[in-house]
């Protein structure tokens, strides 16, 4: 199991488009990929509704937790999407 905390940099937070990008990136990997907010709320990164329900805003910290084959690659790939700025 691997985990790392990332910061949401997108000015409008994690809305539908970034959520879809997180889902798409996480789904490439067979390992378990979860997102956890600072308040302990956790969801699968492979669930668009779950990611949207986290209500992540710019500046929020979110921990990516991966477990299984390809966990390190999944951690970095999903983290990059979380820290991306979408236009």
TrEMBL record:
Keywords: Cytoplasm, Phosphotransferase system. Transmembrane segments: none annotated. It is found in: Cytoplasm. It comes from Paenibacillus albiflavus. Residues 1-87 form the HPr domain. The keyword Cytoplasm applies. GO terms for biological process: phosphoenolpyruvate-dependent sugar phosphotransferase system. The keyword Ligase does not apply. Its main location: cytoplasm. GO terms for cellular component: cytoplasm. This is HPr family phosphocarrier protein.
């Amino acid at each position: 199991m691997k985990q790392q905390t990332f910061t949401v940099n997108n000015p409008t937070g994690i809305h539908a488009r970034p959520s879809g990008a997180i889902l798409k990136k996480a789904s490439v990997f067979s390992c378990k990929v979860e997102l956890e907010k600072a308040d302990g709320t956790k969801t699968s990164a492979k669930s668009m509704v779950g990611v949207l329900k986290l209500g992540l805003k710019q500046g929020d910290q979110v921990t990516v937790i991966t477990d299984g084959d390809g966990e390190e690659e999944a951690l970095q790939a999903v983290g990059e999407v979380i820290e991306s700025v979408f236009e």
